[in-house]
Amino acid sequence: MWLPEAAPVLPLAEAAPVPNAPTVIGVLFFCLGTIIYDPLESHFGGKEEKKKKKRRRRRKEGEEEERKRREGGGEGGRRLREEKRNREKKREGKRRKKKKVSFRKLRGRVNGVGYSPDARLIPYLELAGFGSAALTRTFDLRYDLISALVERWRPETHTFHLPCGECTVTLEDVALQFGLPIYGDAVTGVSAIAEPAVLCYSLLGASPGDAESSFSELKFTWLKANFQHLSDNATEEELLCAARAYIMHIIGGVLMPNSNNNRVHLQYLPLLVDLRSVRSYSWGSAVLSMLYRELCRTTDPDAVDIGGCLILLQSWALYRMPFLASVTHQPYVYPLVNRWSIYPGIGRSYTVPIYHLMIEQHAEEGFIWTSYRRPKIAAIIPSSAYVDSHLWCTNAPIICFNVVEWYHGNRVLRQFGCRQYIPDPPMQVEKKVHGKNKRGRHGQHWGVTHRRYIAV
């Protein structure tokens, strides 16, 4: 068999070498160096350059200030101080912006009486209108919850703005939770007592100071030490003095406490001269005005403490929003605030952000507008608490000595079982009246000062 002869395979020509060609490894090192080292160099180098510029700018500012101080005289000094204040404000603003957002937790204090009244004092306390309030038992306050409520408070309307609408602590809450009278004369008078020792001896039978001493407050420890234990053969006058001391402790420790004080102001004592006329004062509106004032004051971000009847505020929140309490099987008792003093209280406490979230998620559907109409609660409330119920939805100023706040019951009609209409613009107390304190106003009669609001 014949096969054709294959053509010869010629060798390929050898490629000529290219002079100075970069190798693959060299190219790789060049790319890595560009990616890694250049940004680091520019970063650290830029940072150092910024620091140098900042130091040069400050040195230049210092030299400029020194020059102005030497040349400007008095006017230059004032101008220099003003410019310095402006720079400090700018720096402070930048520092605040850099800070992380934090939630404020307020502090407060409740000074419960710490002992039950003697059985012989009960008739006198009931005569004065403090029979139910005298049975109040203090409980642990959840300041995270109170702080979360303060963030929802609006000073212009004295209401909380929740997802369900406007709501607030009302005269109904004071009357039904404490049994205090809400109709009567304004709780007012002279806040500076000329002869405090004489007043204490005449109404309490004892005084923390001698006749020459000057004081304006009574310590709770002094009240407890002198009036907790009564002798078996105590006279009627001694029982009257002990009843006044107990009422003073309730007023200053539970109903209208200061934010960081363990005393009660002596201004309330002249109102307790005749226990039969004590009921003629509107103590419920006084308690509410003090609570409103403290809620308005603590809307200031710089405020760190809160006073007022915090027991009422927390109890109101738990009755209206039961989802805020992790334990809700406690029996209902009267006064209604005592429900949360029964073990285990309201259960565990949460942080301010958690309470914020709970209110945001559940208040729209879980808020109970007419919480006191539930059969179990209505059954234990005495009929005397409803005597002045026609005042619950009123629109009027509420007063306690130097404190004047406006009560807007017409803005929360759903809390009284009524249909809510579009309310009128809220009434406002004059700025010079709102926030007025008692400092430097010795001998001033607040009933005369606020007579235009009392007349309303």
UniProtKB/TrEMBL annotation:
Bias class Basic residues marks the residues at 50-59, 92-101
Q: Please, which domain of life does this record's source organism belong to?
A: Eukaryota
The record places domain Aminotransferase-like plant mobile at: 129-453
* Protein's name in the database: Aminotransferase-like plant mobile domain-containing protein
Which Pfam families does UniProt cross-reference here? PMD
What organism is the protein native to?
Gossypium stocksii
Composition bias (Basic and acidic residues) maps to 60-91
Spell out the residue ranges making up region: Disordered.
46-101
Q: Which InterPro entries match?
A: AminoTfrase-like_pln_mobile (IPR019557), MAIN-like (IPR044824)
Q: Which GO terms describe its biological process?
A: meristem maintenance
Native organism taxonomy:
Eukaryota, Viridiplantae, Streptophyta, Embryophyta, Tracheophyta
